[in-house]
C-alpha cells in the first residue's frame, strides 16, 4: 500500500542510503561521519543542488572535516537538558509547558544539532510506554501544553502517537498539543492519509512548529504536506537556527520568511546557535548576528520577523537577544 511509503523512506534514510551522492562528495569526511552518523532523507537528496559546493542544504547534512575540531569552550549539553529531565523522557523547564522526548531518531541528521551528543537511547519516553511521562503530566495541573519533540516525533507510527494523544486528551488541564518536527519538510510523504485521519479528530489545540532554515528546503512536495497540516487544523510556526554558510544574511532570512508566509507558516524563533561540540564552524558570532538581525528588521513587516533568541540553561524562558 502507498501508505507504507514513508516507513520505507525513513528506513532508507536511517540506514545511511538516503543519498547515493553524499558519501562521494569531495567534502564528505569519513571521520566526521563516525562521530555522528550521516542521515539524509530521499527528499533532501533531491532538493540539494549537487553542482554547488556551497549549497546551503548540503552544508546542513554533509559530515565535514571541520567537525573534527572540538573546541573546549563548546559543550556536549549546551542547553542543560540533562539537568532538567524530570521523569524518563520528560523535560519540564518552562512554566505550563512540558517537552516530551518522544523519539530518539530523525529523518535527517543535521550536523549542527545538539542532539549529536545526547544519550537519547536511554531517555526517550516510548521505551517506557509513556506511562512515567503520563503520570507526571497528570499530576501537575499547571501543565497546559505538551510538546512532542525528540529526535523527531513524526518518526513514530501513527498508532503509537495516537495511543499517547488519546491519554493526553483525558487529562483535563492539557489543552494544547505541539509537535516540533522537521519531517513535513524533509520527508513530506509522512503526512499521508493515515496521519490526516487521526490528527483531524484530535480535540486538543494543535500546533506544528516546523524547522526550516532556508527557503530552498520548501519543495512542492513539502508545500503539499503543509497544506494537509493546515487542513487538519494545525497552527503552523517555524523555528530556524542561524547558521554560518546556510542562512547568515538578512537577504536569505528575509527570503525564508516570505517563503514561509506563502505557505501560511508564521516565523517564530531564530535561534542563536547552541554552542555544541564538533559544530563550532556553524556559529555566527553574536555581534555579527546582531547586525544581520538589525538589517532583517528593516526588510520585513513585523509579523514576519522571527524572535531572535537563545536558550540559556537555568532561565525560565528563551532569552530574547534583541528587543
Ligand atoms: C523551547 C522549549 C520549550 C518551548 O518554549 P516556547 O517558548 O513555548 O516555544 C519548552 N521546553 C523546552 C525544554 C524548550 O527548550
Ligand atoms: S533534532 Fe532536529 S535539528 Fe536535530 S538532527 Fe533531528 S531534525 Fe535535525
Task: Describe the fold and architecture.
This is L-lysine 2,3-aminomutase. The protein is α/β, with parallel strands linked by helices and about 325 residues long. It has a single domain, classed as TIM Barrel, CATH 3.20.20. The protein is about 35% helix and about 15% strand. It is built from 13 helices and nine strands. The protein has helices spanning about 5-15, 30-35, 40-45, 55-60, 80-85, 120-125, 130-140, 160-170, 185, 195-200, 220-230, 250-260, 285-300, and strands spanning about 90-95, 95-100, 145-150, 175-180, 205-210, 235-240, 265-270, 305-310, 320. A nine-stranded mixed beta sheet has the order 1-2-3-4-5-6-7-8-9. Helix 12 (about 250-260) crosses helix 13 (about 285-300). The radius of gyration is 19 Å and the shape is globular. About 40% of the residues are buried. The mean pLDDT is about 95. Pyridoxal-5'-phosphate binds near residues 93, 97 and 147.
Summarize the topology:
Blueprint: H1 5-14, H2 30-35, H3 42-47, H4 56-61, H5 81-84, E1 90-94, E2 97-101, H6 120-123, H7 131-138, E3 145-149, H8 158-169, E4 176-181, H9 183-186, H10 193-200, E5 205-211, H11 220-231, E6 235-241, H12 250-262, E7 266-271, H13 286-299, E8 307-310, E9 319-320
Parallel strand pairs: 2-3, 3-4, 4-5, 5-6, 6-7, 7-8
Antiparallel strand pairs: 1-2, 8-9
Helix pairs in contact: 12-13
The structure holds pyridoxal-5'-phosphate and iron/sulfur cluster.
Residues 106, 108-110, 113, 115, 150-152, 182, 211 line the site of iron/sulfur cluster (SF4).
Domain Radical SAM core: 92-315
Cofactor: [4Fe-4S] cluster; pyridoxal 5'-phosphate
Keywords: 4Fe-4S, Iron, Iron-sulfur, Isomerase, Metal-binding, Pyridoxal phosphate, S-adenosyl-L-methionine
